[in-house]
Amino acid sequence: MKVAALTPGRVKRWRLMLLAALVLVLPLHGMAQGAAAATLAEQRAKAVTQVVLGILSYARWPVEPEQLRLCLIGPTEYADDLVKGTTQATGRPLTVRRLLAGDPRILTQCDAVYIGKLSGEARSQLISAINGKPVLSISEADDPCTVGSLFCLRVKDTQVAFDVNLDSVARSGVRIHPSVLQLSRRRALQP
């Protein structure tokens, strides 16, 4: 077997070939990582949508709306899939719209609110406005579920769990099926 001598010209060519290979491979690696992150975000959004639709399907309002109106309040991280709108398993259509936290239409045009990231003051004002009204509230942001939302999501990887604020449920006038309350209790007991 004959070994070619490494001359300065050959070293330079090898470096150029190696550099060219890296230039071609690294963007593909970065794109693969970006695609994996996008896929994880999509999976989280779909998982959140399933949980939210499940919660909504087990809720009963004093006057059942023909078409359920869900309002997204504030910047949200996992609500992209919800924005598309959908039909619940019961066949009732779900319309979704974005509103600002101080929008007065929240009280008249929202049967449920999905609360994203809000300042403490904006969150307090929103919770005060819907307190005692038949509006189901689901909080996405890291909410300890003691500040007024009926449901608080806990998203980890592609798993979505939720906590329930029983005091807020009682004040809202929206009835929640006991099996949903039991489900949250079982999930809370799991490590």
From TrEMBL:
InterPro entries according to UniProt: YfiR/HmsC-like
Pfam families: DUF4154
Name the record gives this protein: YfiR family protein
Provenance organism: Pseudomonas qingdaonensis
